[in-house]
Design brief:
heterotrimer, A: mainly alpha, MetI-like fold, 2 domains, 3-stranded antiparallel beta sheet, 62% helix, B: 2 domains, two-stranded antiparallel ribbon, 17 helices
Chain lengths: 448, 491, 265
């Protein structure tokens, strides 16, 4: 073997000083820097995409939280609203919203005259006011029949085009081409604004009011959708959490290692990756067509989302059960507790924060899920608030993400603003849920 | 709601059982709870659970089976002539159900003096039913009316029978478990066995869900293939549904759109996600990491509808105005590239967090080995870490691909509704600025709005769903298998 | 062979290869190494012994700046190899590590073929202009590591299929393939059985002709068998350093004496 050791060393250019980088090292270090830059570019792309996404949504949607209103004094003329003079509600209810429109028209014409506004070629000044105003007026009159004959000040929604004018969506040039608004009407709006009759204020109705039809975007709100989403989350919470925890406890603490358990395990990890739309097909075929549950109902949405959320909750719960050290189990078993007592008295309470965090994450996924809900009819146009639980779970309702989708399919560009605004609301809900999850995790974080 | 009441009664019985069972056990030990085999509350639980479990189980089964049984009974009773030529038995049955519902709503008498059933009576009935909010699409025929009456009678009987049987079951459970309660009864073991059964039932819901997924699609897909040749579906080249019949429903054009968009999404997500993961885990200072990592995670928490709207109102018009129009590639703002790009952004955090886990699973000793040989950090990553992590990364990419293929909202809003057309030449097929549709988009469009579950145009959605499920399941199983084997290698 | 070992044990007056002066290492707030000074001569084997956690491995990792890869580690003091301060700002650790190779406690072959494992170093340092040259370097290194007979028929098989001892010799082959001056060995035999250990010890004897070897070991027998110079580390301090004979037969420091006679450790 000595002959190998004695082998002469070849000339070696690397035996130079360490203090000077040779050219190869310089090249390699340049490659190193390039590689680092690729990484930085990748991270920047991701972060910029997020910023771009959020800015786009917020800048498009922030406008929906404020709305243009027009204040008018309306004369509640008796000869129009209560011809019999009996103040009988059922009798007065026969006057449809069309009967109220002339009152509004008269009110705005009075206001124009009172302010001395004169605009050449102005027609149909009542086009400034939302078609929703007549319904608002009618509801007021039917609720306060004694006010008929009085003059009452109302704050009406301005029509979508006028609102768009003050949000930059509508311009004089676009109005000239628009069947629904004319430049003269915009000038009138400006004049009314100067007179203080027109103002833009925060719009609670966007959050509380129900959806509105295609041609009155200014009145569309999220009330029904938020309530529907809330109902579904309640269903998901009350089904997915107990079932998920029970399943995890079995799989993690009791299940024998056999074929069936393996099948369940593989099943769960696969279910977590099944496309959500497929769950919608399941909901349609089983819950609606087979079991006969009503369409558009929060209960069906809740059931579908429960099945979707279960894998998430099971995976999180198992991880947090696994993180409870075996020494705790041994200690409990050692004092004579049964396996069941050990799990329910010691392991489960220690794993609770992790389970809660997982549940909230599962819920927030469910809250944003859209595709399966489209298939079970939640995309329908619903103006009625669902009733109180438990019957309310079976009433038709919408859901936040579906409402967003619904609005994107409508032609009036004002609905794009509504959809973006609804996303802001959705994101705020998600943010709150995630913050709660983070706080829970921080607060109960344990070190073993 | 009688059902609510029934449930409440059973609950009340369970609570009573808890108190009495506990009391009986304590009494049998002469008031000294130390003489009991188990803790006193276990005796209570034993009675309560024996009351509830069989009764609720029976209730659930009954609720599931009764409608099916009544449906088939009534449907068999429905005479052939009650079904007009333009209608089907299913449609008539849905009328029957609504009439029965209406009769219930107006609280029509069950038996007694039977009114003369003629057209005038039925027209009046239709109006009455309509006035309580049950609108009917057509006039009520005598056949439908009779069927509805027996439907209602059967439902009524079924409901009563269910309440009685469920209550008796609960009561039976109560007495049996109450009788066996004494101080030597092994209450804890019995209760724990019961709880274990509940746990097993919960765990098997996962299997039931999969079963439900597969069966629901299989049945309807079978109906579809009965009405539409399977060769045309799998090997046809044209997607042209026509609700007057003679539709061409082939999956290939949709599959092409799906795969094309997914490939673009992966081309964006894989390099960006992988490099981001490498940068954050190997290079970034802890300050940079603490700022950027949550930002990337936020991307993962954003619902897909948000990405969809982003594609629709921002990315799509931008790509059209700055690329497609000036370059003459088309004028559609919905396009393959729009959907692909946005979906790619959505997948970045998915790829990066999976790669992060996988890269961190490569043992430090392997990196040390490379550094000790004088390798730079990037040489170590490219030539040692990434090759070592390759199976895991491939698994992650497959999982991302399965996500991309199954993604719905982004393509619904960003990709368009026109199916790829194989007969218009390759140029149009590969133009990324062309609107193109996917399997998921068509599932949504065929199953929303007016659906008729007997027409192949609706049923095709189930065949599409089944194909989608099969493809993604295959990818998932493969990916999970690869990832699992990869992890075992380093454990 | 045994006779040769004994005659070789007297230290010839070679050049000083490594000189450390006042070296301190901190891991965050922990003061892991305190004021260590030692000189190591060219083409000798120096062993560092001591109880676990005493800092001997940490000191070894200072010599090729492996501690740089740990974020919280901080090294102060003066370490010179061939008279050049290796912690000088101008020194590229990559270049340094090409000169100071290292073999680790647990064999850590890359998940590649046997050939690729050995070829990796020469490839990144550009030592071979052609494939033939690369092959020559690989074969020569495998030969020097005493592994060639066992693997020459399966050079393209995965390295993870080798036995633990073979893997460790492969790692040695991998380290010497880039022809370093110094070879650091961090408890290279702790994961191996006695037969594999003996083979590696034999190998060290041969390699010492060409390389300066610094070995960390928890086995006093191993230190006495392979080294000419021995240092004893205790709680981050280099308690005593001297010829191996002197340390084992006539230790000056009481801690060294207690350790060697088996009172602790």
């Amino acid at each position: 073997m000595t002959d190998i050791i004695a082998e002469p060393e070849g000339g070696d250019r690397r035996k130079g000083s360490l203090l000077a980088q040779d050219t190869r090292t310089q090249k390699r270090n340049a490659a190193e820097r390039r590689f680092q830059i690729y990484g930085m570019v990748a991270v920047s792309i991701a972060v910029l995409a997020l910023v771009f996404l959020l800015t786009s949504i917020v800048s498009n949607g922030i406008g929906s939280f404020s709305q243009t209103f027009i204040s008018l004094d309306v004369v509640l003329a008796e000869d129009k609203l209560d011809k019999t003079g009996s103040r009988d509600r059922t009798e007065m209810a026969k006057v449809s919203t069309f009967g109220y429109a002339p009152l509004i028209k008269a009110a705005i014409e009075d206001r124009i005259a009172a302010e001395g506004i004169e605009i050449d070629g102005l027609t149909k000044p009542d086009a400034l006011i939302s078609k929703e105003a007549a319904a608002q007026l009618r509801n007021f009159v039917l609720a306060n029949t004694d006010r008929v004959g009085d003059t009452v000040e109302f704050k009406f929604l301005a029509s979508g085009r006028i609102d768009g004018y003050y949000k930059g969506r509508v311009t004089m040039a676009s109005a000239a081409l628009d069947r629904n608004i004319s430049p003269e009407q915009l000038m009138l709006a400006d004049a009314l604004k100067d007179a203080g009759a027109l103002e833009r204020t925060f719009n609670w109705d966007f959050i509380t009011a129900p959806d509105a039809s295609e041609n009155r975007p200014e009145a569309a709100g999220l009330g029904v959708a938020i309530l529907g989403s809330l109902y579904m989350m309640v269903v998901v919470l009350f089904l997915a959490l107990p079932i998920g925890v029970a399943a995890s406890i079995y799989l993690e603490e009791f299940a024998p290692k056999n074929f069936l358990t393996d099948v369940i395990e593989v099943n769960i990890s696969n279910l977590a990756a099944v496309p959500s739309i497929v769950f919608g097909i399941l909901g349609l075929a089983i819950f609606i067509n087979f079991a006969g549950l009503p369409q558009s109902a929060p209960i069906v949405g809740g059931l579908v989302l429960t099945l979707m959320t279960l894998p998430t909750i099971i995976i999180a719960t198992r991880a947090s059960l696994k993180s409870v050290p075996p020494s705790i189990r041994e200690a409990a078993l050692g004092v004579g507790a049964s396996k069941m007592q050990t799990v329910f008295h010691h392991v489960l309470p220690l794993a609770a924060p992790g389970i809660l965090t997982g549940t909230i994450i599962g819920l927030s996924q469910a809250l944003g899920e859209t595709a399966p809900l489209l298939l079970i009819g939640m995309v329908a146009f619903v103006r009625e608030y669902p009733g109180a639980p438990p019957e309310g779970f079976f009433d038709p309702a919408s859901a936040l993400p579906v409402q967003i989708y619904n609005w994107t399919t409508r032609s009036d560009p004002a609905f794009v603003e509504r959809a973006s605004g609804a996303i802001i609301v959705l994101l705020i809900f998600l943010l709150i849920m995630n913050i709660v999850a983070i706080i829970l995790r921080r607060r109960f974080e344990r070190r073993w | 709601m009688p059902l609510i009441w029934l449930i409440a009664i059973i609950f009340a019985l369970a609570v009573l059982g808890f108190v009495m069972g506990r009391g009986r056990a304590v009494a049998s030990a002469g008031g000294d709870t130390r003489g009991l085999h188990s803790l006193p509350s276990y005796y209570g639980w034993n009675v309560a659970l024996t009351v509830m479990t069989p009764a609720f189980g029976l209730l659930a089964l009954w609720l599931l089976i009764q409608p099916m049984w009544i449906e088939s009974r009534v449907s068999a009773q429905l005479p052939e002539n009650a079904i007009s030529e333009t209608s089907t038995r299913e449609l008539v049955m849905s009328d029957v159900r609504r009439v029965a519902e209406g009769l219930e709503a107006i609280n029509a008498p069950f038996g007694g003096a039977h009114p003369v059933v003629n057209d005038a009576y039925l027209a009046d009935l239709r109006e009455q039913i309509g006035s309580v909010g049950v609108a009917l699409g057509s006039d009520i025929t005598v056949g439908v009316y009779d069927a509805a009456r027996s439907f209602r009678t059967l439902s009524g009987w079924g409901g009563t029978a269910m309440s009685v049987v469920a209550f008796l079951t609960a009561l039976g459970g109560f007495s049996v478990s109450y009788m066996v309660t004494n101080k030597d009864f092994r209450a804890r073991n019995t209760v724990e066995r019961g709880i274990l059964l509940v746990l097993v039932a919960a765990a098997s819901i996962a299997i039931l869900t999969t079963l439900g997924l597969v069966l629901s699609m299989l049945f309807e897909a079978r109906n579809f293939f009965a009405a539409h040749p399977w060769q045309d579906f799998f090997f046809g080249t044209k997607w042209a549904p026509d609700f007057r019949g003679n539709s061409e429903l082939a999956i290939l054009p949709l599959l092409w759109g799906t795969l094309y968009i997914s490939v673009i999404a992966l081309l964006v997500a894989v390099p960006v996600g992988l490099f981001a993961a490498i940068f954050l885990s190997e290079y970034a200072s802890s300050r940079v990491r603490s700022l950027t990592k949550p930002a990337i995670e936020v991307l993962a928490g954003i619902p897909t509808i948000v990405y969809g709207l982003f594609a629709l109102i921002t990315v799509g018009p931008m790509l059209r105005d700055y690329f497609a129009l000036p370059l003459g590639f088309g004028q559609s703002s919905s396009s393959v590239i729009t959907a692909g790009l946005v979906m790619g952004i959505m997948l970045i955090p998915f790829v990066s967090s999976l790669s992060d886990d996988i890269i961190n699973a490569v043992p430090q000793s392997m990196r040390d080995g490379s550094y000790a040989l004088g390798a730079t950090q990037s040489e170590t990553i490219r030539q040692v870490v990434v090759p070592a992590a390759l199976p895991g990364i491939v698994g992650a990419v497959l999982l991302a691909a399965s996500r991309a293929i199954g993604e719905t909202m982004i393509v619904v809003l960003g990709a368009g509704a026109a199916a790829a057309q194989f007969d218009r030449g390759l140029g149009e097929l590969v133009n990324p600025f062309q609107a193109m549709t996917t399997i998921t988009v068509k599932i949504v469009s065929q199953l929303t709005g007016d659906t008729d579950f007997s027409s192949p145009e609706t049923l095709v959605a189930f065949a599409l769903g089944l194909s989608l499920f099969t493809i993604t399941l295959g990818l998932n199983v493969l990916a999970l298998w690869i990832v699992r084997r990869y992890r075992e290698q380093y454990e | 062979m045994n006779d040769m070992r004994i005659t070789n044990r007297t230290i010839e007056m070679n050049d000083i290869k490594i000189a450390a002066k006042g070296v301190d290492v901190f891991y965050g707030d922990t003061h892991a190494i305190k004021d260590v000074s030692v000189e190591i001569q060219d083409k000798t084997v120096t062993a560092f012994i001591g109880p676990s956690g005493c800092g001997k491995s940490t000191f070894l990792r200072c010599l090729n700046r492996m501690n740089d890869t740990i974020d919280v580690a901080r090294v102060t003091g003066d370490i010179r190899i061939d008279g050049e301060d290796i912690y000088d700002a101008k020194v590229d650790p990559v270049q340094l590590r090409a000169k100071v190779g290292m073999v680790f406690q647990k064999p850590n072959p890359f998940p590649k073929s046997i050939f690729e494992n050995v070829a990796y170093g020469p490839k990144i340092h550009g030592l071979a202009r052609t494939n033939d040259e690369l092959e020559e370097i690989v074969m020569k290194s495998l030969n020097r590591a005493g592994l060639i007979d066992e693997v020459k028929d399966r050079l393209l098989a995965p390295a993870t299929g080798l036995s633990g001892g073979q893997q460790q010799r492969l790692c040695i082959a991998r380290a010497i393939a880039i022809n370093p001056d110094v070879l650091l060995m961090d408890e290279p035999c702790s994961a191996l059985d006695p037969i594999a250990t003996a083979r590696i010890e034999d190998l060290m004897w041969e390699l010492k002709e060409n390389f300066t070897i610094v070995i960390v070991t928890h086995s006093m027998q191993q230190a006495s068998r392979v080294s000419q110079q021995t240092g004893f580390f205790h709680m981050g301090v280099l308690a005593e350093v001297g010829t191996t004979e002197q340390i084992f037969q006539n230790p000056v420091d009481t801690r060294t004496r207690d350790y060697i006679t088996g009172r602790f450790g």
